[in-house]
Amino acid sequence: MMNALELNDVSKSFGRVAALEHVSYAAAPGSVFALLGENGAGKTTTIRILLGLCEPDHGSATVLGLDSRRDDLKIRSMVGYVPEQPILYDWMTVEELGRFTASFYPDGFLKRYAELIAEYELPPCARIKTLSKGMRAKVSLALAVAPDPELLILDEPTSGLDALVRREFLEGMVDRAATGRTVFLSSHQIAEVERVADTVAIMKKSRVLTVEPLEALKANTRLLSLTFKEEASFRIPFATVLDTQWQGRDGRFLGRDLAEGAEQRLAADPNVARFELKTPSLEEIFVAYMQYAEGG
Predict the structure, then answer these.
(1) Which of 66, 94, 182, 254 is the most exposed, having the fewest neighbouring CB atoms within 10 Å of its CB?
(2) 30-82 pLDDT, tens per residue?
(3) DSSP code of residue 296
(4) CA–CA separation, 3 vs 249, rounded Å?
């Protein structure tokens, strides 16, 4: 089955500043793919390359089977896209903007747009320039979703939305994926992403640190907290230690791939007063990867 999008060894620099370095991953159809990273990690550059708005220096990108260099216009006609800072025609009303945009799409756009602005509680007769940041974000979302695209690309889509609308919107993205459509989103709302993402990519300073199904990422990452009776040397039982914190005789370690039999050895260690192993949240994993990439 063809992937909804793919990046193959993509690199991009602006002058001497590397925006992306050897980035490769794919988003399967019918999934919610979340791209996470700090500001400047390369998330927006990734999206611009996928849409053919800028070309990679090296490597290739495909969207819905189309080459982002050669087929950029066709890709943008087939994909719903919400940029982080959408540009709208301020002099139009919410309703007029929908009618104007409908002329570029097949029948059905205007009906779905009207349903969406009603769902988002947008006043049809209000001019765009009078709307708050959150309301403008809702207009952009309605315009992107109304064509019912196979792929929806969202760059910080819930910025400016209140908590309830953010939650409802993200749950709607899960519903879209259930119908076979794909959602690719870049977001800082890590706790909310955790509720909806199928696959997660974590970026830091132009590089991808990991790309995994969220379920596998959490299953393979554990948070170990323990207290020693006396201070002593300790071999941390992870193949990869992402984060280490010591305070006196208390230790807290977040790592990948717990060593076989580690739990039994901890239970039998006479110097371990107590220990706890648990699955960390996506936000804890994200923060640990950021620290790991900085060298601890």
Answers:
(1) 66
(2) 999 999 999 889 999 999 999 999 999 999 999 999 999 999 999 999 999 98
(3) -
(4) 49
Domain that holds residue 146: 5-205
Q: How much is the pTM? A: 0.90
Measured between alpha carbons, how far is residue 84 from residues 15, 90, 158 in Å?
Answer: 23, 17, 9
* pLDDT (0 to 100) of residue 296: 53
Question: Nearest to residue 183, comparing CAs of 166, 167, 200?
Answer: 200
- C-alpha torsion angle, residues 74, 79, 80, 83 (rounded to 10): -80
The DSSP bridge pattern shows strands 272-278 and 17-27 to be unpaired
Q: Look up residue 114 and give its amino acid.
A: A
Tens of pLDDT, residue by residue over 100-138, are 999 988 889 999 999 999 988 899 999 999 998 888 888
Instruction: Note whether 274 and 137 are same-domain residues.
Output: no
Residue that finishes a domain, picked among 139, 171, 205: 205
> Which distant-in-sequence residues (6+ apart) come within 8 Å of 9 by Cβ?
22, 23, 24, 58, 59, 60
Phi-psi region of 220 (alpha: psi -120 to 50; beta: other; left: phi over 0): alpha
Examine residue 215 and state whether it is found in any structural domain, yes or no. Answer: no
